[in-house]
């Protein structure tokens, strides 16, 4: 066995070496063709080489030093009238929009000044810093910037930023989903699908949360011809009906009745079966609780009877029924007073100090059949 493992290790090392050789040969061929290969953490980007520019592309925090810096910048881009010095090599790394703009046949590839109209207002610099470094700053996901970040990142094709935005949205969905910007900002059902997937994967959503998100997302659909195809697809793909409670379903039916009119009846079969199971479990719990209530009621009646005060036939004192067998009954001819836990007093003295005023007899109480009236 050890020999076989050694052979497998040698084979794996040979395979890795062969793959490295193939990769190096491929990079050499691309370089010979006049192209530049930028190798980052998880991807390699190929761009046209500019012989007049001696510029190295970095990843991570090191790349932040070039953000909006004139040095080595080859473009000035105006994002909604906000201008930035930009570097083509960084813009094409994470943006599908700029990759198509600068690496294609568009005239913008040769222009020094470019104007880009973003769909949402907001601070563009945090997005630009992410495009350079791949580091998502907290400013991108603040309450007043979240939806702008989603819209602009979707417009620029920055998929990595969209994934991070979806993760942040999933963790704070109760705050974002009720916003009126929710439906207007997130028009792509695939992005909403990624939110549902990430929330489920990270165990962020509880039962019924996904159903509420889909209903809120499609809440403003008022077209009479709308068949809610995207919402129904999301409900079916992510099993929102199967994972929702009856209370959540009741809320959704009241919030968006037309949506559920287009859903096939077979989709509600798991809901019906789960309702029957929940009803059976609820009845069983009720039965167990009723048994406990009966037992507790019997205990209360027993304790109440034991605490009931009755009169002793000898000393005529009222004592709890439970104390009749433990307390001492003192019978005497003298008129005196018996103090519980202290003893009998006739001459204003306790029995231990009294010389002549002693009780006639000491015995247990004799219980009267008539309880004390309350």
TrEMBL record:
Pfam families: BTB. It comes from the Eukaryota. Residues 73-134 form the BTB domain. This is BTB domain-containing protein. It comes from Pocillopora damicornis.
């Amino acid at each position: 066995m050890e020999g076989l493992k050694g052979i497998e290790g040698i084979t794996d090392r040979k395979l890795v070496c062969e793959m490295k050789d193939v990769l190096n040969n491929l990079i050499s061929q691309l370089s010979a063709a006049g192209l530049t290969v930028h190798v980052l953490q998880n991807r390699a980007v190929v761009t046209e080489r500019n012989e007049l520019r001696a510029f190295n592309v970095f990843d991570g925090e090191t790349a932040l030093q070039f953000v909006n810096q004139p040095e080595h910048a080859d473009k000035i881009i105006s994002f909604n009238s906000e201008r930035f010095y930009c570097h083509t090599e960084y813009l094409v790394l994470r943006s599908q929009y700029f990759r198509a703009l600068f690496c294609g046949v568009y005239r913008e590839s040769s222009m020094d000044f470019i104007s880009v109209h973003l769909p949402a207002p907001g601070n563009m610099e945090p997005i630009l810093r992410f495009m350079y470094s791949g580091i998502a700053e907290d400013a991108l996901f603040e309450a007043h910037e979240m939806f702008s970040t989603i819209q602009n990142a979707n417009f620029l094709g920055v998929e990595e930023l969209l994934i991070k935005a979806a993760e942040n949205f999933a963790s704070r969905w109760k705050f974002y989903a009720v916003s009126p910007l929710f439906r207007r900002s997130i028009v792509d059902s695939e992005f909403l699908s990624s939110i549902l997937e990430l929330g489920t994967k990270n165990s962020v959503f509880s039962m019924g949360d996904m159903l509420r998100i889909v209903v809120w997302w499609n809440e403003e659909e008022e077209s009479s011809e709308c068949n809610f195809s995207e919402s129904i697809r999301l409900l079916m793909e992510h099993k929102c009906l199967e994972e929702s409670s009856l209370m959540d379903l009741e809320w959704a039916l009241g919030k968006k009745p037309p949506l559920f009119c287009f859903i096939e009846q077979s989709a509600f079969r798991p809901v019906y079966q789960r309702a029957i199971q929940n009803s059976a479990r609820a009845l069983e719990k009720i039965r167990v609780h009723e048994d406990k209530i009966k037992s507790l009621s019997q205990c209360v009646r027993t304790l109440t009877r034991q605490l009931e005060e009755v009169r002793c036939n000898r000393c005529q004192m009222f004592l709890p029924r439970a104390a009749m067998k433990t307390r001492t009954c003192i019978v005497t001819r003298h008129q005196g007073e018996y103090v519980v836990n202290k003893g009998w007093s006739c001459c204003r003295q306790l029995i231990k100090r009294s010389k002549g005023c002693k009780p006639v007899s000491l015995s247990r109480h004799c219980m009267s059949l008539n309880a004390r009236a309350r």
